[in-house]
Every structure is written in structure tokens, then in C-alpha cells.
Amino acid sequence: RVRLRASQQNIAVLPEHSLYAVEHDYMDTSFRSMYRGLSAFLFATQRRRDLLLGQRMPEFDLSFDQAIAEAPDDFTRIAWKARAAQDYFLLVGPPGTGKTSRALRTMVETFYKERKQILLLSYTNRAVDEICKMLLSITPAIDFIRIGSELSCEERYRPYLIENVLEDCPNRRAVQLRIACCRVFVGTVATLSSKTELFRLKTFDVALIDEATQILEPQLLGLLCLRGMTGVDVIRKFVLIGDHKQLPAVVLQSSVQSEIRSERLRAIGLHNLKDSLFERLYRASLQTEEEKRSRVCDMLCRQGRMNVEVADFPNRIFYGGLLQPLGLPHQSGLLTLAPELIDCEFADLLTKRMAFLPSEAEPGVSSAKINHSEAVLVARLAAAIYRQYLYTSGFDSLQTLGIITPYRSQIALIRKEIAKLEIPDLKHVLIDTVERFQGSERDVIIYSFCLNRVYQLKFLSNLTNDAGVLVDRKLNVALTRARKQMFIIGVPWLLGLNPIYKELLCACGEISRGIKY
User: Fold this and answer.
1) Which residues pair with 242 in a beta bridge?
2) Fewer CB within 10 Å, N- or C-terminus of the chain?
3) DSSP H helix total and E strand total for the chain
């Protein structure tokens, strides 16, 4: 169903049989929100401005120190630290560490038991859906209201949308009472930034903000600096949850264009407009002594997503070996080949946790964004994976297999090749870019690099320097989507021109057809 955002109500201006031009729509709501956010920053309380500009250090309640030291697990420790924080707390959540399902849940339960007013925010509606799923799993049930639109909300969460919750309220007083009685509100940063009327009725003790590394400073400033009817901050303190080693916010400008040259701004850690508030505050925490840094920031280190062999490369190269497996069944053990696939062309690969399959560049094609031979190879491998899992543990289109490739053109080509196989279950397998795969996971991931020319290597990477360690955030996200197996397809000599990719090929070890690289 198609619904026009700015539909024409007067049909007289649209005469029948006329000719029309279809043009790109432009929605400036996000820009207006950011301008309002900058205005809110200028009128913020002095303490909040000083905090965000690095002129005042965050404060903590030291009476929680013993409880933090004696916490029985990581999630309880983090919840206690969030309680102790008087201004803000940062949580680094690497892939598969349970930052939403466990850490965020524990913080919500902790603050809710203390009868705090809680605002839960995220960047995407999909992440807000996940937060709603988490809230509904809590026992006893937590009353919450979601701010947003039915068009961007999963059907099962629509009863919690504010317009549906308030539908039966007979008058304004009943509306005010319903909002006052609910202590948990959920929504995207963009939605809350454009619907600040809520803050005339309510202030919050804490804002828990997921996906914080994907949110630019101007997008978040308005909410953090907003003042209520009495002149106090509508958000007393905030917790930022994210991972600066995964993909950041999408910004059209280059790093050179968005670089900050003002020495006064650089002195407080504002180096580039592409950076998130999370990154700036995290870098600032690295400049403080260990004791203060441990109060303002913590990191989840136990991951339950990836098999240890799948996790080995990103753990060593990007996380300094800090990630430890939870010891779940799928994280160890050997895979056995289904007897029906003994003669399969990929028989030697289907029991490997991580493998590389070489393809060939096609420099003669009209577009560098497609590689026909690689698309065919992906389709054949997908069919083999389908049969392997069908005969062993079962195949689920939404859980078992995912395919990542950088270009829309290659996505379409892979879909076309898979359609030729006439395997109904494979038609529903998610094939998408790394950016759109962030936040998802599958048992098996095929990563097709689709490389034809040297210049494409720059596009495939998203590099950041973290305390002297070069991190490819795009590669990190791609490699950490798989639970059980990771298959990489690309042109060896082209990938070998990139030091990190070359190391990845070496880590894969034995390559198909007995080739060593």
C-alpha cells in the first residue's frame, strides 16, 4: 500500500488524463529538528552546557562503589554504574554482547523498581521495535507508551502507540493523568525531537539511548538540552549505548568537508561533524585516569552470538581479544557434513566455520558494481548451504542464511541467480548491504565483496582510529553478523591490496579448491 506524505486534497487541480512529472520528495523535518536542537543548546542550563562542552566533569554517587565492586554479573554492575552516574554513563556494546536484550533490560528493571521516569530512545524504528519486544518480556509487566507512527511500527506493538493508548480518554484531564501515570516512554530520537509537546507534561529521571554511535550531535542535543516548564532539564541524566567500532551515522559529506578547524572546538574534542556525541565523550574519558574512566564508561565483553572461530578475527583485530564466549552450544564443536552432500562441489567447505572462496574480477563489464561470476557462485553456495541445513538442523529463511554485498545492482543480480535455482525457501533469504544488516544476525552469512577495480577498495572500507588501532567498521559489522559460519567471496589479488583484507584472507587459512593465499 502506498500512502502519500503530502497528498493533494483538492482533486480539481489534478485533471484527468493530464501529464505529471515524478520528482524526488524532500523532507526537511530532520533539519528543522537539528536547528531547534542547536537553539535548545543555546538556551540550556549552564550546568548542561558546561557538561556537553567538556567544561565540567561528569559527577557520580560514590556510595554505590561497594555494590558495583560486588556485582554478581556484568549486567548488574552496569546497572549500578548507571544508577551512580549523576550526569551520564557510556556503555560500549560489541556485537552479540546483549546490550539491548540484557544490559538495557537490566537498567530498565533497576530504574523502574526505583519508580524513576524512564525515556527509551534509539535511532531506527527497527531498534525501537526491539526495545518494545524487550519491555514486553519483562515480568511483572511494565506499562509503556510508544511515540511514533503506525507506518513505522510493527503491528504487534501498535496498541502501545500514544494515539491508541489515549483513544479512550474522555477529556484532557484523563489524557494528562494517563501520561502522568505511565513511567516509561519509547521512541526514536527523530520522533521525540519533533514532538516535544510531551516534555510540557513530563520530565524524565533518565534517558537510555541505544544505537548512540549512529546519532549525530545536533540530532541529540535538542533533547538533552531541553528545559521544562519550570526551567529544569527535562532529562536529568542520560545513558548512551553503542559501539564506536561499528558503522556510524550515514553522512553525505566527506571527512575532509566535515572536519572541524576551530582550535577552540578541537580543544574540547570536537574534531569532525561526522562523529557522534558518544564518540566524543568516549574519547574524552580516555584522557582521564583509570578510576574516573571506569565510572563514566564500561564495556560488555561476553558475547553469545558468534562461534569462537567466527569471532576470532574481529575479536583479535578490532577488539584486542577482549571478547569472551558465553559458552553456548553453537559457539564450539565441529560441524558434520550431511551424507547427501558428499559429492557436492562445496563439500570441503560446508563444515568449516570460516572460509574464503576466490572469484575473478570482471573489468570489462559496463558497471563495476556487478560481478556475474560472483553472483553465480553466491547462488550455488547458497543452494549448498540450504541443503546442508535442511538435512541436518533444518532451514529457516529468516534465521539460517543472510547474504551481504555492497551494491544494489549486485543484490538484484544475486536474486536473479537464486531465482533460477527454483528453491522457494531461498527466495525469502535477506540479501542486503552491510549498512542495512547492522543489528541483524543469521546462522550463516555469505559476504560477497563484488570487487572489479582497485578504486572500489576505498568504498568498501569505513576506517577509524581507536587508540592507535585501525578499525574497519564496515568489515567488522559484516563479519559479526554470523552465528555459526562465515563465507567470504572476493578477488584475492584485489583484496590483498588492503592490509586488513589481506590479514583476513590469511586468517581464513585454507581456501577452496586447495589454493593457499
Assistant:
1) 92
2) N
3) 22, 16
Return d(Cα 185, Cα 360) in angstroms, integer: 52
In the numeric block, which cell numbers belong to residue 72? 554478581
pLDDT at residue 29, rounded to an integer: 66
| Residue segments in the chain with a per-residue pLDDT below the cut of 70 | 1-3, 5-6, 26-30, 510-517
Angle, CA 133 vertex, CA 132 and CA 134 arms, to 5°: 90
Residue 479 Cα to chain centre, angstroms: 14
Alpha-carbon distance of 341 to 211, in angstroms, equals 41
Amino acid at 374: E
How does DSSP classify residue 466?
E
Q: What is the pLDDT of residues 470-510, one digit of tens each?
A: 999 999 999 999 999 999 999 999 999 999 999 999 998 74
Digit-coded pLDDT (tens) for 128-138: 999 999 999 99
Q: Let me know if the fold of 29-244+251-300 is the same as that of 308-514.
A: yes
Closest to 125 in 3D by CA, of 133, 115, 117: 133
What cell does 93 get?
Answer: 556494546
Residues in the chain: 517
Residue 243, SS3 per DSSP: coil
CA distances from 57 to 64, 288, 293 (A): 18, 10, 11
201 vs 198: CA distance, rounded Å = 6
| Nearby residues of 293 by Cβ (< 8 Å), 6 or more positions away | 285, 286
Specify whether the CB–CB gap between 376 and 417 falls below 8 A.
yes
Q: Where are the alpha helices (DSSP H) in 20-124?
A: 29-42, 46-52, 65-69, 74-84, 105-113
Residue with cell 589454493: 515
Which residues make beta-bridge pairs with 472? 463
Place domain 308-514 in its CATH homologous superfamily.
P-loop containing nucleotide triphosphate hydrolases (3.40.50.300)
Residues of 109-118 as b/e, b for ≥16 C-beta within 10 angstroms?
ebbbeeebbb
Q: Packing angle between helix 105-113 and helix 125-136, nearest 10 degrees?
A: 60
Phi, psi of 265 (to 5 degrees): -75, -40
CA distance 240 to 91: 6
Cβ neighbour number for residue 72 with a 10 Å cutoff: 7
The fourth-level CATH superfamily of domain 29-244+251-300 is P-loop containing nucleotide triphosphate hydrolases (3.40.50.300)
Grid cell 537490566 in the structure block, residue? 106
Residue spans per domain, the chain:
29-244+251-300, 308-514
**Other beta carbons less than 10 A from residue 30's beta carbon:** 15
